[in-house]
Amino acid sequence: MKSFVWHPNTQMKEWDSFTKIVKAKGMWLTDSDGNNLLDGVASMWCNVWGHSKPELINAITKQSKKTQHTSMFNLTNEPAEDLATNLIKISPGMHKVFYSDNGSSAMEIAFKMGLQYWNNIGEKKKTKIMTLENGYHGDTFGSMAVGYIPEFFNKFKRQLFATIQIPVPNKYRIPKGFSYQDYQNFCIDKIEDIFSKDEKIAMFVMESGAQVAGGVNIFPEGFQKKISKLCKKYNILLVLDEIATGFGRLGSMLQYTEQKSIPDIAVYGKMLTGGYITMAATLANKKIYDSFLGEFDDWKHLFHGHTFTGNPLAASVANENLKLYEKYSLIKKIKKHQKYLRNIMKEYQNWKRLEM
Ligand SMILES: Cc1ncc(COP(=O)(O)O)c(C=O)c1O
């Protein structure tokens, strides 16, 4: 049957048809021919508990009988309120939660919050965004400008706003003449050099713990903490993108606590709802939030809002998802498995060496 769907990141000429998923349970997807496929990418790194988890389905079903969607523009809803409370509880340093419906939008909100913060407090020259090479923060225009991967986005280069991109240490791609440690120092020194000279730097944006879509690159120990310290020293906002790495994906609930680098703005997505309904959140500290307060005529409020912001179905499944993290001690389990996996990987490395 002819399909009218245009698929993401896909050269459609190469594809006559796509495997059609009709059912999913646990880690398995079933296609329309009855084949079972292992969901090895956790449905784009967002599924936490596997598919058709009864508790998550029940949360959606229960909420769907009350309200399915109501606007957050001057209204609120119980699941979104509860979720904000739950997120603030697990997010040291954060003060308020701003909802959106996907990671790219949540990053756009972070940029707007950060830039407007400086405007709100009268520091209007602070307009530049600094970031790391090979970062990825989504596919919308602001996110493309900040997480610029040339192969993906060079067609739009002329329309993207300028950012300052800092080289990033990668254990497997160390430039000639450097040791891994030397190169880390080089990158950190470069950041400090720019911070100390350019008064227009408003914020530093990076993925938290590791770069993912731009080529999996786990940051060296202490790298993120050093950037965080520099941001504090030079009074520059730190925005951490936890969308792909938070909620246990790298072994801790939040990478920013693991990396001892409390940001001014933290961004969550993907696993927030266990991978069941699209939702993302941009969290800001009190300093940022307070700068937006004023009289209506001051026009300091944040001009951003999506139709489905704070959707109650998504929020209720996110609340249930967070309950399951507690119920099953997920982070503790991941840490236990991490050790086991690390040992196996070491054994495998030694075995490969012997073979060669
Ligand atoms: C680190 C990071 N930030 C932002 C995004 C964008 O999220 P979304 O695909 O929900 O727009 C992604 C998506 O993969 C990501 O990995």
Question: How would you describe this structure in keywords?
Answer:
alpha/beta, aminotransferase, adenosylmethionine-8-amino-7-oxononanoate transaminase activity, pyridoxal phosphate binding, 2 domains, binds pyridoxal-5'-phosphate, 356 residues, pyridoxal phosphate, seven-stranded mixed β-sheet
Q: Which small compounds were modeled alongside the protein?
A: pyridoxal-5'-phosphate
- Return the structural class: alpha/beta
Output the number of helix runs: 12
Biggest sheet statistics: 7 strands, mixed
Q: What number of structural domains do the residues give? A: 2
Q: Termini, distance in Å?
A: 51 Å
Low-confidence stretches: none
Rg, rounded, reads 22 Å
Helix content: 25-40%
Protein name: Aminotransferase, class III
Keywords: Aminotransferase, Pyridoxal phosphate, Transferase
Family: Belongs to the class-III pyridoxal-phosphate-dependent aminotransferase family.
Organism: Candidatus Nitrosarchaeum limnium BG20
Structural summary, described in words:
By secondary structure, the protein is of the alpha/beta class. It folds into two domains: 1-40, no CATH class; 57-330, Type I PLP-dependent aspartate aminotransferase-like (Major domain) (Aspartate Aminotransferase, domain 2). The protein is built from twelve helices and twelve strands. The chain has helices spanning 42-45, 54-64, 78-90, 103-120, 141-146, 150-153, 180-197, 223-233, 255-258, 286-291, 312-327, 330-355; strands at 21-25, 28-31, 36-38, 96-100, 128-132, 164-166, 201-207, 210-211, 217-218, 237-241, 265-268, 280-284. A seven-stranded mixed sheet has the order 4-12-11-10-7-5-6, sandwiched between helices. It has a three-stranded antiparallel sheet with strand order 1-2-3, with no helix packed on it. Helix 9 (255-258) links the parallel strand 10 (237-241) and strand 11 (265-268). It is globular, with a radius of gyration of 22 Å. The relative contact order is 0.16. The mean pLDDT is 96. Pyridoxal-5'-phosphate binds at residues 102-104, 107, 136-138, 207, 212-213, 241, 243-244, 269. It comes from Candidatus Nitrosarchaeum limnium BG20. Belongs to the class-III pyridoxal-phosphate-dependent aminotransferase family. Keywords: Aminotransferase, Pyridoxal phosphate, Transferase. GO terms for molecular function: adenosylmethionine-8-amino-7-oxononanoate transaminase activity; pyridoxal phosphate binding.
